[in-house]
Design brief:
With 259 residues, this protein is of the alpha/beta class. The chain has 9 helices and 15 strands. The protein is 37% helix and 24% strand. Strand 7 and strand 8 form a beta hairpin.
Length: 259
């Protein structure tokens, strides 16, 4: 297990339990107590947790794992989902990409498509995600439109009135949206109302809405709704989605693609 994997596992355990003790954590990860103490000290330096005498507790009341520590969760599923979503995009389209780990993988899959290696432009990408813009801007065949706004360090997303003002002036062929939850009855949602507002506007400005989400996010609810289920055209997910939940999405008019 690499250091990054240990850190992610420790943070996941901390979110789940609310607190961690060194010895049980060392046993769970199969490493020495000294390694765990060193890891916790380094995570505390990044203000991702608070060290206690015997372990660590959450840094605050509200906690969200930063994007850089979420990238390897369900990595195989996200890779399959992203490649399938990228294959839905037609050369020359204007596409919108929200922030998130799965949409970041979609951006990488688009960059790897041979038929998008040339063009003027091969794609126009509208995004409020700093990391996605940073990865794609080196591709001269892609036209990158980055909204303004205030950056959220946890997700690298730009939100707020400035971002909304820019996005409201644009039209998009396909919006690819990452979510924290998507339920057939309650619709697509995220944990933060500012991100939900940006994602909602992107969906409103698009002719087609594609949600890219692994099955752990489906059939569950989150705090701030993005759009109702009937506003979504396509859901791309993994084979872990139960047939009953898939059927509920399809009954609401959503095309479900499981990969």
């Amino acid at each position: 297990m690499t250091r990054k994997e240990r850190w992610q596992t420790l943070l996941d355990l901390l979110v789940e339990r609310g607190e961690l003790e060194v010895e049980p954590a060392a046993e769970a990860l199969g490493v020495s107590a000294a390694t765990i103490r060193r890891d916790l000290d380094q995570l505390a330096e990044q203000q991702l947790l608070v060290r206690t005498r015997g372990g660590a507790v959450l840094h605050g009341v509200s906690y969200e794992l930063p994007l850089r520590y979420r990238t390897s969760r369900r990595a195989a599923e996200k890779r399959r989902i992203s490649e399938t979503v990228a294959a839905l995009i037609v050369p020359g389209e204007v596409i919108g990409l929200t922030g998130g780990t799965t949409t970041t993988e979609v951006a990488r899959a688009l960059a790897a498509r041979p038929d998008l290696a040339t063009g003027s432009p091969a794609l126009t990408v509208v995004t409020n995600a700093l990391n996605i813009a940073g990865e794609l801007v080196i591709r001269p065949q892609f036209k990158i439109v980055l909204t303004g706004g205030v950056a959220r360090p946890q997700s690298y997303e730009l939100t707020g009135p400035l971002a909304m003002e820019v996005l409201g002036q644009l039209s998009v062929d396909t919006a690819v949206v990452g979510v924290d939850a998507f339920d057939p009855a309650d619709g697509a949602a995220t944990r933060h109302e500012d991100e939900a507002a940006m994602n909602r506007l992107l969906c409103e400005r698009a002719r087609r809405v594609v949600i890219a989400a692994d099955s752990s996010k489906l059939g569950v609810r989150a705090f701030a709704r993005i759009v109702a289920t009937d506003a979504v055209d396509v859901l791309v997910t993994d084979t872990g989605l139960s047939p009953s939940v898939a059927g509920a999405f399809e009954a609401a008019g959503v095309e479900v693609i499981r990969v």
